[in-house]
Amino acid sequence: MITVTTKKLSSKQLIIQGLHVSVEGQEILKGVDLSIGCGEVHALMGPNGSGKSTLGYAVMGHPSYEITAGSVELVLLDGKRVDVLAMEPDERARAGIFLAFQRPMAIPGVRVADFLRHCVTNVRNPDRKEGEELMPMREFRSELKAKMAELSIDPEFARRYVNDGFSGGEMKRAEILQLAMLKPTFAILDETDSGLDADAVRLASESIAKIGGDQMGILIITHHEQLLEHNIPLKTHVMLGGRIVESGGPELAAELHKKGYERIRAAYPEAAAAEKAMEDGRVEVSST
Ligand SMILES: Nc1ncnc2c1ncn2[C@@H]1O[C@H](COP(=O)(O)OP(=O)(O)OP(=O)(O)O)[C@@H](O)[C@H]1O
Ligand SMILES: [Mg+2]
Question: 208 and 192 in contact (C-beta within 8 Å)?
């Protein structure tokens, strides 16, 4: 158990310290430290398989991702620290943490509108028990309609089953719609740009900037810099071999996008060796 001195902070914070995560017995994250304040945008980059999605799943509480050491805490406005790892995934969502999936799963039989009405009601009334009243239909519908128009999403979309038969781009838009409706305090956007055409990436970048603002802390996981165009990161972090090895400003994102990770691997040989070992011992990826 890591003890940390409680300091009065001016904004809410998500603080990850010394996080070690294993999947099926193999250690993937090997001590990740990352703090995001409300109102801040951070970018997380790194080669394929470096552990970026694993960090998102671990923070959200995916049961396959075992935390073997470290902490994830929410610091509230009064300085009170909440242990995120002690919460169930739904409690984490109700506490204001959100993960937009790299590969969202389909939920056949559940319509987008019904799904969102449940999510929004639960997040806005964190103490709501299942079976208790949902947000009034009329109020919900008008809010959903307005958000969909803002994000240029066809209203018909709301009647479809969640991600069922969605194109890659539609899935990513559905994740952004969730973000817009749920307005979390901390959002992890895992490759929300993958599968989007150039115009759609620009729209996604603008939409995220509109949704964000000073009431949201955002971690943008991406391989490119386009999504960051309207969301200039306060810091760019580079993950290699399950560790954040370097942090810099927006120029670091531009460098990695253009030049790749050769310089990073040369500068951090231990992490590069861990990356190699992870590749050699890679476990079969189960569908998540
Ligand atoms: N559920 C899982 N089952 C088995 N192995 C997993 C699982 N999740 C992650 N891994 C392994 O952990 C390592 C890190 O994967 P992760 O998805 O976090 O990488 P990433 O940085 O998000 O990569 P990408 O840029 O390709 O999305 C990989 O070697 C991967 O095979
Ligand atoms: Mg990933």
Answer: yes
